Each structure stands twice: as structure tokens, then as C-alpha cells.
Amino acid sequence: MEVDEDNRSDFEKEEEEEDDSVSDLLRDRFRLSAISIAESEAKRSGMEISPPIVACIADLAFKYIGQLAKDLELFAHHAGRKSVTMTDVIVSAHRNEHLAGSLRAVLYW
């Protein structure tokens, strides 16, 4: 097995490329879904929304979800767990009381 200057094997490079490919696919699918939702909501509300704004909303939402995933992982790790719980999700929403209330309603329904 060949190892290059940065001490990564060909297998490790292939795994990294595959992970990047999966991440790109997830990002693209998320972006398409966010665009579809934004356009549907605009139409339902009788509004027009420009394509650059829709793309910006989709990109911001994807970045937010990425940060949320990192926060959830940290909350679970801090609690000594390997998996995320609904409580972690509620704690992550503490800055948005409406969202936190909705999540609590689902949890305690």
C-alpha cells in the first residue's frame, strides 16, 4: 500500500473522497428541498421570491443544520452519551422559545 508525503494511504484518500461525495450529495438534496419549500411557501402566501434569495436561504439553512449537528454531538458527549436525545434537541433550541416550546409539546405529547 502506497503512502504519500502527508502519511495518508490510498485507501484513506479514497474514503475521504467518498465522504466528500456523500456530503456534496446531501448538501445538494437539502438545498433542493429548501428551495422547494421556500418557493411553495412564497406561492401559498401570494409572494414572489427571487432565485438568489432562495439560494441564500437554502445555503444558510444548510450551514445552520451543520452547526446544529455539531452542537447536538457536543451536548450528547458532555452528558457522557454516544447518541443524541430529544432533550439535546430541545436544549439546542433554547434561543428560539417558539421552537423549543413546539419541541417540548412533541416530546411530552
Automatic annotation (TrEMBL):
Question: Which ranges are annotated Basic and acidic residues under compositional bias?
Answer: 1-11
Q: Which SUPFAM superfamilies match?
A: Histone-fold
The segments labelled Disordered in the record are: 1-22
Q: List the keywords (alphabetical).
A: DNA damage, DNA repair, DNA-binding
A GO cellular component term found in this entry reads: FANCM-MHF complex
InterPro entries the UniProt entry points to: CENP-S/Mhf1, Histone-fold
Residues making up the signal peptide according to the UniProt record: none
- GO molecular function list: chromatin binding; DNA binding; protein heterodimerization activity
Matching entries from CDD domains are given as:
HFD_CENP-S (cd22919)
> Does the UniProt entry include the keyword Cytoplasm?
no
Q: Where is the composition biased (Acidic residues)?
A: 12-22
Q: Does the keyword DNA damage apply?
A: yes
Q: Which Pfam families match?
A: CENP-S
GO annotations under biological process? Answer: DNA repair; replication fork processing; resolution of meiotic recombination intermediates
Name the family: Belongs to the TAF9 family. CENP-S/MHF1 subfamily.
What's the protein called, per UniProt? Transcription factor CBF/NF-Y/archaeal histone domain-containing protein
Species of origin? Gossypium raimondii
